[in-house]
Amino acid sequence: MSGSSIWKPLREELARWREAGRVARFWWRDDDAIEPTAALDRLLGLAIAHETPLTVAVIPAKTGPALSQRLSGARGVSVAVHGWSHENYAPLQEKKQELGGHRPAEAVLGELYDGLLTLQRLHPARCIPMLVPPWNRIDGSLVPKLPALGFECISTFGRATAEGPMPLLNTHIDIMGRRADGKGPRVGRPHDEVVSELVRELQDRFEGRNEPIGLLTHHLAHDETAWTFAEAFLKETDGHQAISWKPAAELLKDQMSTT
After folding, report:
1. Which residues pair with 29 in a beta bridge?
2. What b/e string do you get for 83-115 counting C-beta neighbours within 10 Å, with b at 16 or more?
3. What percentage of the chain exceeds 70 in pLDDT?
4. Which top-rank group of organisms is this from (predicted)?
5. How far is residue 196's CA from residue 230's CA, in Å, rounded to a whole number?
């Protein structure tokens, strides 16, 4: 499938939005930032070139002033708390989880509080009170206790539920996937597959679901397939009348005002 034909379904869906005078809200979250790298430079370059707001989920226990200095001149970039150390405490037979019920709640919550304070200190103008659980998983019993620590929002993956003790600002489109044999590191997904998901999410919003569409990337893990998709997608949406890329802080403010 040629590059132009891959994007045709998205262009047609966006044309429907434009003709209806409607605008779809998008936001962008990238996970696992720790320090300045060539991959981070490439990520920031894309965001800045296309003037697209970006939220970087930073691992507090593994980061430091170097990342703060690197982000100091990056326009439109915010920082969220990506757990504490991104360590897995679940047994082998369970899915990976740092914020599960495998340790005392006091220990987990203490680390999250330290994580928020750490990023507020390192990124005072960029840190937003958003918790991004590693592997997009958190034990439900911890969630009601997060506001007392200073968190105002959680961001995981998938459709946000209407009920819950805290607002959710989720991601929905992951440009990375598993290999066909299920072995080795994750790889960039076929572009036509991701475009089909984008169209389905847009159709869902057109029918009335009031939830921003979240793009999820992992700059440290990207192969060229993933990087190429990210750049092409930003080009497709850059300046499009039917799409508005929103900063996470603005979306969070909107959510807080309606809850």
Report:
1. 55, 216
2. bbebeeeeeeeeeebbbbeeeeeeebbebbbeb
3. 95
4. Bacteria
5. 15
Q: What is the DSSP string of 18-37?
A: HHTT--EEEEEEEEEE-S--
In tens, the pLDDT along 100-124 reads 989 999 999 999 999 999 999 999 9
The residue whose two tokens read 């969070």 is 252
- 8 A C-beta contact, residue 82 and residue 58: yes
Contacts of residues 41-45 at CB distance under 8 Å and 24 or more positions apart, as own/partner, are: 42/219, 42/227, 43/217, 43/219, 44/71, 44/74, 44/77
Dist. CA 223–CA 247, nearest whole Å: 26
Q: In this structure, are residues 169 and 160 in contact, taking their beta carbons and an 8 Å threshold? A: yes
Domains of the chain with bracketed CATH:
3-258 (3.20.20.370)
pTM beyond 0.85, yes or no? yes
